[in-house]
Amino acid sequence: MSDNTLFIVFIAILGGALRVSTPFMFVALGECLTEKSGRVNLGLEGTLVLGAMSAYAISYHTGSPWLGVLAAGCAGSALGAMHGYICKLPKVNDVAIGIAMMLFGTGLAFFFGKAYIQPTAPRLGSIPLGDWTGNAQLATALQINSLLIIGILVAMAMSWAFANTKWGLIIRMTGDSAPAAMAMGVSVDLVRFLATTAGGFLAGVGGAFLSLYYPGSWNQGLSSGQGLMAVALVIFARWDPLRCVAAAFLFGATGAIGPALQSVGITQGYYFFNAAPYILTLFIMIASAGSKRASRDVPGELSITK
Amino acid sequence: MSVDAPVRAMALETIGMTKIFGSFTALGDVSMKVEAGSFHALLGENGAGKSTLVKSIMGYYHADRGSLLLDRQETLIRNPRDARAHGLGMVYQHFTLVPCLTGAENLVISRADAPGVIDWTKEKKSLDAFLDRMPFRAPLDVPVASLAAGEKQKLEILKLLYLDQRLLILDEPTSVLTPQEADEILGLLKGMTDRKEISVVMITHKFREVTSFADSLTVLRRGRRVGGGNVAEMSTDDMARMMIGDTQVRDRAKRAERPAGKTTLDLAGLMADDDEGLPVLAAVNLKVSAGEIVGIAGVSGNGQSQLVEVLSGQRPLKDGRIFIRDAPFEPTRDAYYRMKVFGLPEEPLKNATVPRMSVAENMAFRNFDKPPNAKLGWWLSPGPMRAKARELIARYQVKTQSPDSPIGDLSGGNVQRAVLARELSGDVDVLIVANPCFGLDFASVAEIRSQIMEQRNKGAAVLLISEDLDEVLELADRVAVMSEGKITYVAPVQETDRATIGMHMAGHH
User: Fold this and answer.
1) CA distance B44 to B50
2) Last residue of a domain, which of B244, B270, B287?
3) Interface residues of chain B, partner chain A, Cβ below 8 Å
4) What does pTM read for this prediction?
5) Which domain, by its residues, includes A267?
């Protein structure tokens, strides 16, 4: 393999990481926020798909992709709020509800989305970050979407807020020790409801990226489990928003290995490389399950038997 | 919060407090009077209604009858938040600090007027100023999860003082502390009550603490007030009689004189890591003979819990061997059965029982797969299991509604008794006991200690790991001190004293 091919592969992976990571990032941040408050929302896969559909539909009808992004966020919040409300009822298991919400979200998206598979909606623009390099390939790879920057900013804001604001501390407190939060007069259910709703908003926005930027169309096979992988990613990132961003890039890069190799003519093991993110998820789950540091960082209230 | 204003102690009085759960009167017509600036002890056995009384005061329960007077004003407390607003603060038996937050974060967020955006430079400065005025300090910059029990307890009390509370209710505050830490904290609180800065109500059943620190006391039994008054006018015998009433407390089993037997339990160079992967046991060497109790004393966190976990198969051994009667011992179910090794781990509800399974099932953990409880080793018969449980419940006086109630519903002392019944009802060669009387009342303590002594007299090799030095001195034939993961001192109990042991506990060899 010549230096040039290596360079192409590298660029393709970099470009892939920048493009593919955004939905992972938003879903992971949403899940991170929800889990910090002590609740697991496994339904974010459904939220992602419904967000993608809503964004595409609204963008198509209004002609404004950013209105589409907002609509995706609102659809996500609605699903999040529903999850948050149902889990508030006594003896409800959040994991089971999450799975139901995942099926509900995807089902709803497919039902309303039938009409939007054909038409073309206006898509989000991109910011050329790499034009100064003078290298056409690099310039294409470095074309990024503003949602990526927004995602990084959201992660930074979350990380700051968890340490420096009253609400941040209250969310961490609720997630780590519900009795302590109740003793302080904090309504645990309300905090979790709000955190799940806000988490749903972020996941919905992640869906808008899928349908409005990359791959940039609406169809039923759009997500292929990214919402579920993002949940694993939060565990890998040990519930830290900034590490969620890093983990999202890592997932994006592994997802790009297959196409990148194909672009230089290596087709052997194409499907194997395409499966890389799923294999990575598996290994991450195994590695983090045995990690003692992960068990220390896990919010104390997270449990599948609540 | 105001920084310079002196904290004024508050007076508290309950009149005819009554709380009924279903058909059970948990609290019947209890009147208690706490003068402003006094240190009041609330004595009683487990289940006597102490917790119900303070929870009714704090607004967790709504009393069915009765009223509460704060500074002689009748006050209605609807919920814990109300209580806090009125200056009532409580330190619970379980900690209410949030483990993942640092001390500073815990303090600031507990304030009702915590700012939306926290200016940490400013807050740190005011926290430092606050700590300078306090009689004791606690580390504020590390997550609470990594603090030792004593530090957590201090931080809990600091939190209440930081919130400007004028009356503190402490629910068995010293059960997690070393004797020195307990004396220090209670002494400092006593100083604050003497200066009329706060009033204190302390739930306890340690007479020593009552006589050394409290001014006045109230004694509860079966939900009723059975006595009280000034501590100075009462002897501990009076208090004990009021507390346990006519209940017969079992006499302590006498230490039978017997020649030292052969070495039964031999720990040879045990090494293990803690949860973070750091070495916590650094070659523990110890021999225990038949018919002997070896008591391991030490400041908590020097590897005692990990040693117990290693011996009970809860933690992998990195190096070293355990021998029982010169045969290597691996902590497997089969080996426990064959070599007759039994144990009473600390926090039995967590370490020795499955809370949601029934008392009968929990009592059968050692032999549910052996006849008559099982046929062929897998077909279980609940009948004999329940019959056996009934017998044990009667013999060990376990208070439970039926053998079929979940063991998690039992009080602490009764869980301990149920585990004791399971572990001691057969033939015991080796007994490993950790903090067996932690948080238990007077009668249970006497009972459990005499059971342990009986096993020794019958020829078992007993390894007792306890944070209560009095317990070690009372029971042990030989005393060992554990410090930084090693046994640093071993001596027959007649040839040593508190001061020597204390010195080794503190790490001076």
Assistant:
1) 7
2) B244
3) 79-81, 84, 94, 96-101, 105, 108-110, 114-118, 120, 145, 275-277
4) 0.76
5) 3-124+142-305
